[in-house]
Design goal:
By secondary structure, the protein is of the alpha+beta class. About 30% of the residues are buried. Helices cover about 20% and strands about 30% of the residues. The chain has one domain: tt1808, chain A (Alpha-Beta Complex), CATH 3.90.1570.10. The chain has helices at about 10-15, 40-55, 115-130, 180, and strands at about 25, 30-35, 60-65, 70, 80, 85-90, 95, 100, 105-110, 135-140, 145-150, 155-160, 165, 175.
Length: about 180
Amino acid sequence: MVSPKQNIRYTYADYCEWDDDTRWELIDGVAYAMTGPSTTHQRISGRIHGQLYNYLQGKTCELFAAPFDIRLNADEDDDTVVQPDLVVICDQTKLDDRGCKGAPDLVIEILSPSSRRHDMLLKFQRYLKAGVREYWIVDPDSKTLSVHVLDNGRYTTNVYGDEDIAPVHVLDGCEINLSDVFA
């Protein structure tokens, strides 16, 4: 096993050879080391996971938590692999033993100081380009949720506070109680 070096363009094949001691993401061929999540981050992830898991019982869509590889352009350059905090995938043909090939239906990222810029700018653009239908950015500091819904090639955005109930647009009838998430 090896670790990536700076100033080199990588592919998914390279990514599969890297040391497992560090979590990595690969965006447009550039490797990014990921830091471990905080306790607050884990609490929020678990609370959202619980609500989504309960809703998805008996349905065809599946929920996955990080670490879970999403190969956003697996059929093209195969140079982008992300590990969002939570994803929902409804098209079972996108799933294989290594994760997801293509855009999930819902991606949820929980911000941390080290990932804020990365999640809000770089990954936002990659998710939009890949056609992720709904992208959530959860901000533990401000206790807000920004929901970006794909509409004609652009994201429309709604922001919810810690007392709101947020609809999941890609899951008909699913709502997330944010007072429980941010408790």
